[in-house]
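For consistency, the fold was encoded as tokens, which produced the following:
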Amino acid sequence: MLIIYNEIVLDRYLLVLAPGKASEASLAEHLDRACRSNTPAVWVDCRLLDTVSATTAWLLWACQQRLRRRHVRLVLCRVSRCLEDTLRQVLPSSDLHVVPTLD
């Protein structure tokens, strides 16, 4: 998984994911930084992904759980139907917050 962009915007921390050879440890570091950002929401733009590994799905779920304890939302946006199906099969809970756009 390759992080191609990350930025703190006024009301959110934004990560854009793309397929690549970067390690899942790199994704974990970016998600950790997002969790510590003190923003009201963390948005993950998945428009460039068709699928993710079980480890990547678990990292997203763990980030969601960590943020939820602080009443912060993890929002996945621009998620393909195939990717959403994969995430819902792999993750222990199906309460992902998925939206069609960044708006």
Remarks:
- The radius of gyration is 12 Å.
- The first helix runs from residue 24 to 35.
- DSSP finds three helices and five strands in the chain.
